[in-house]
Design brief:
Keywords: Coiled coil, Lipoprotein, Membrane, Palmitate, Signal, Transmembrane, Transmembrane beta strand. By secondary structure, the chain is of the alpha+beta class. It contains twelve helices and four strands. The chain folds into two domains: about 375 residues, Outer membrane efflux proteins (OEP), CATH 1.20.1600; about 70 residues, Outer membrane efflux proteins (OEP), CATH 2.20.200.
Length: about 500
C-alpha cells in the first residue's frame, strides 16, 4: 500500500487551522485594557476672562495624594466640627463604604477561582445489582478522602475576571471618595447658608425695631393732630410685613438646621445650632489647569475604572470560545466495612483532566461578547459625559465667582447710598420737611439692598464650596487661604 505526502498533510492542516484561529482569538481576548483618553482644554475659559493676572494659581495633580481637609480653609471651628461628625456618621458615606466592602469581597472571590481547590469528603452507600458481576446481594461502600481540582487559565478567563472585579472595587473606592466629598460640600454649604440666614434675620429684626420707633413717632404726631390716621396705618403695615419676612426666615433656618441634622446622622428633634456671628473666612481656591480635574475628581476616576473593568469583561466573554481545562484528583480510603476503612489495603486514588468546549450553543457565546461590547460602549459614553460634566462644573463656579465679585462691589455701593438716603430721610421727616411715604420708601430700599448684599455674599461662599467640589478637593488649609478674607471684610467691601 502506497502512502503519499498529502495523506498526512491534510489531517494535520485540518487540526492546526482551528488551533491557530483559537490562538489568534486568545491574543485578542487577553489584550491589556487601555485607559480612555480625553483631550483637555489648555485652560478654563473663565481663567482667560479673569480681571486680575495670576488670580488663579496652577495646582499639581493630587490623584495619589490623600484628600486634604479643605473646609479648614474657611477658618470656622463650628464648620470643622460639623464636617467631622458628617464624616463619621453620615448614612450615605456608610452605604458607599458598604458597597466598597462588597466589591472587595467579590475581588477575593474571583481570585479564589484561580487558586487550587482542596476539599474533604466522606460517604457511605449500600447498593445491589450495580457492580460488574450483577451481584444479587446488597453491598456496602464506605469512603473518605481528599478531593483536588485546579483550572488551567490558559486563555486568561480567570485572570480577566479578577482584573474586572479589582477595577470594579477601585471604581467603588472612587465613588466612596466622591460621596464623602459630596457630603462634606453639602454640609459646608448648608452651614454657610444657615449663617447667612442668621445675619439676614438679624438685619430684618433691626429693621422691625426701626419701624417701631417710626410708629411711635407717627402715633405721637397723630395724637397731636399733625398727621392723619392713614400715616399710622402705613407704618403698621410696613412693620407687620417686615415681621412676616422675619418669620419666613425663621422657617427657612429651621429647615436648614434639620438638613444639617440628617447630614451629620442625627435626629432633627435633638439637633440644635446656636445663632452666632458669621465670622467665616472666604478663601480663594486655586483652580489649576483643566487636566488636573481629571486626576483629582474621584467620580471621573471611578468612571475611568468602570471603562477598564468593561474592557476586561469583553476579554472574559471572548474566552468562552476556548476550551476549559481542569485538573482533578482524589486520594483516600474505600472499604465495605467501617472497621477496615483506614487500613493500608483500603487506600484508593485517582487523577484526571477534564476538557470542555461547547460546539453548539444557539449563539449564547456570541451574544455574551456583543453584550460585553455594548457595556463597554456605555461605560465609554458615561466616562466622556463625566469628564464634560466636570469641566462644566468648574466653569460654572468660576463664572459665578467672577460675576459675584463684581456684583458684590456694585451692591456695596447701593447699600452705602441707601443707608445715607435713609439717614437723611429720617432727619428730614422728623423736622417735617418730607412726607412719611418718602421715609418708608427710603427704609424699604435700604432693607432690600442690605438683604441683597447678604444674599450675594452667601452666594460667594456657596460658589467657593462648589468650586472645591468641582475640582475634587485635595488641598490643605494652607494651600487655599493665601488670599482668604474674613467675612467682616467681605461685607465691608
Amino acid at each position: 500500500m502506497k502512502l503519499d505526502r498529502s495523506t498526512f498533510i491534510r489531517p494535520l492542516r485540518a487540526a492546526l487551522v482551528p488551533l491557530m484561529a483559537a490562538l489568534v482569538l486568545a491574543g485578542c481576548a487577553t489584550a491589556v485594557p487601555e485607559a480612555p483618553s480625553v483631550q483637555a482644554p489648555a485652560q478654563f475659559k473663565e481663567q482667560a476672562a479673569a480681571p486680575a493676572e495670576g488670580q488663579w494659581t496652577r495646582a499639581r495633580p493630587a490623584e495619589a495624594q490623600p484628600r486634604g481637609e479643605w473646609w479648614r480653609a474657611f477658618n470656622d471651628p463650628v464648620l470643622d466640627a460639623l464636617v467631622a461628625r458628617a464624616d463619621s456618621a453620615n448614612n450615605s458615606i456608610q452605604a458607599a463604604a458598604a458597597r466598597l466592602a462588597e466589591a472587595r469581597s467579590l475581588v477575593r472571590s474571583a481570585d479564589a477561582n484561580r487558586a487550587p481547590q482542596l476539599g474533604l469528603g466522606a460517604g457511605a452507600s449500600r447498593q445491589r445489582g450495580l457492580d460488574r458481576n450483577q451481584s444479587t446481594q446488597p453491598s456496602t461502600l464506605i469512603s473518605a478522602g481528599l478531593d483536588f481540582s485546579y483550572e488551567l487559565d490558559l486563555f486568561g478567563r480567570l485572570s480577566k475576571a479578577s482584573d474586572a472585579a479589582r477595577l470594579d472595587a477601585e471604581s467603588r473606592e472612587g465613588l466612596l471618595q466622591s460621596t464623602r466629598l459630596l457630603v462634606q460640600a453639602e454640609t459646608a454649604q448648608t452651614y454657610l447658608a444657615l449663617r447667612a440666614i442668621d445675619d439676614e434675620r438679624q438685619l430684618v429684626r433691626e429693621t422691625v425695631e426701626a419701624y417701631r420707633d417710626t410708629l411711635r413717632l407717627t402715633q405721637q404726631r397723630h395724637q397731636a393732630g399733625d398727621i392723619a390716621e392713614l400715616d399710622v396705618a402705613r407704618v403698621e403695615t410696613e412693620m407687620a410685613s417686615t415681621e412676616s419676612d422675619a418669620l419666613t426666615l425663621d422657617r427657612r433656618r429651621a429647615e436648614l438646621e434639620h438638613a444639617l441634622a440628617v447630614l451629620t446622622g442625627e435626629a432633627a428633634s435633638s439637633f440644635e445650632m446656636k445663632t452666632e456671628r458669621w465670622t467665616t473666612a472666604l478663601p480663594v481656591i486655586p483652580a489649576g489647569v483643566p487636566a488636573t480635574v481629571l486626576t483629582r475628581r474621584p467620580d471621573v476616576s471611578a468612571a475611568q475604572k468602570s471603562v477598564l473593568a468593561a474592557q476586561s469583561r469583553v476579554g472574559v466573554a471572548q474566552t468562552a470560545w476556548f476550551p476549559n481545562i481542569s485538573l482533578t484528583g482524589g486520594a483516600g480510603y474505600a472499604s465495605s466495612e467501617l472497621g477496615d476503612l483506614f487500613k493500608w489495603s483500603a487506600r484508593s486514588w485517582g487523577i484526571g483532566a477534564l476538557l470542555s468546549l461547547p460546539l453548539l450553543d444557539g449563539g449564547r457565546r456570541e451574544a455574551g461578547v456583543q453584550g460585553a461590547n455594548a457595556q463597554l460602549d456605555g461605560a465609554l459614553a458615561g466616562y466622556r459625559e463625566q469628564v464634560l460634566t466636570a469641566f462644566r462644573d468648574v466653569e460654572d463656579q468660576l463664572s459665578s465667582l467672577r460675576i459675584l465679585e463684581a456684583q458684590s462691589e456694585v451692591q456695596g455701593k447701593a447699600v452705602a447710598s441707601a443707608t445715607r438716603a435713609t439717614q437723611l430721610s429720617d432727619t428730614r421727616y422728623r423736622n417735617g420737611y418730607i412726607s412719611q411715604l418718602d421715609l418708608l420708601d427710603a427704609r424699604r430700599s435700604e432693607l432690600r439692598n442690605r438683604r441683597q448684599a447678604l444674599q450675594v455674599r452667601s452666594a460667594q461662599y456657596q460658589a467657593t464650596v462648589g468650586l472645591i467640589r468641582a475640582l475634587g478637593g485635595g488641598w490643605t488649609a494652607g494651600d487655599a487661604v493665601a488670599q482668604a478674607a474674613p467675612a467682616a471684610q467681605v461685607a465691608a467691601r
